[in-house]
Amino acid sequence: MQRIDNLRCYPQPLTAHFTHPNRDTVNAYELCYLAERVVDPIQSHSDTVRAKLVNIRILGHLLSQSGLLSETAISKVAQDIISCREESMANDETQAEALVNLGAVYKDVLLRPFHKSKRQIPDVSSPGSINVSSPSSKSDEESSSSSIRASPVSWASFKLAEDEAKHREDHRCIATRILDLPFAEGLHSQTGEFYAGDVSCLRLCHIFPELAPEAVDTASSDSDGVYSLENVMMVTPDLRARFDVLSLWFEPIEDVPNRYRLCSPWVPPNGLRAGQEITFQSTDPRLALPNREFLAVHAACCRVTHLSGAFGLLGSFEVDLD
């Protein structure tokens, strides 16, 4: 994977020196590398060419996320890419266009759901059932490749997840340890003393969105739905705002349980530092911490979004929605 520091230099073109133990994955990457040059042989700056390059680079950069995505998931992407070559009869231009279309599918069914729009974040200001609608219908090709499912959300589910996450995190932000303001106010009512540290109105943050890609390769993503304790955490509003638009993520530290490296192309909020290592802690061993695999998938999607240049396109889509 590219170093964290290199994320400040996005988007990144595909490299001519990609290596991977699986030969099919290497072949798939080389197809993307060739398609990149077929689409843009003269380094054009047109918006149409840029959008095509983004789609191709999404595929290539997904193949390079071995430290975050499972080999099963990477092999699936590789096979989808190779199938484009077989269907295009080895014509470079036709093959490149097929990869552009495939990249658009991955952008819409994998990356875009993680870039949470206001319409995907439920309004839980009052009790009552809330339903998150699935997006508008997609092309036949997109529907056959993957699909997005709508998850029903209820006030009771939200409150249970929030209460358990607050208890697990000791009423603090899981990353900054900033205390929840309502909890601090309760302490003041009981003791008459003001808490001396930082406080904030913490927010419940989802790792997988309400509209979750079905193809995500994790063992327990369907166990309890979007409000599974493994899929939520309490964070400050600034952290959630960054996390929800793929601008901040947590990369698992290899062989160290519940320890993560904070990553962001920009300076993180709340006094945190890019590259800082953070250990997630639970006050109760019965309450599961955020799922390592879930966070790894989110991290991979963040990386690919920035490295491919898709971040600006996802952002402009959200503006258009409003």
From TrEMBL:
Residues 125-137 have a biased composition (Low complexity). GO terms for molecular function: phosphatidylcholine lysophospholipase activity. Its EC number is 3.1.1.5. Keywords: Hydrolase. Residues 119-148 are annotated as: Disordered. This is Lysophospholipase 1 ). It comes from Ganoderma boninense. The gene is Q8TG07.
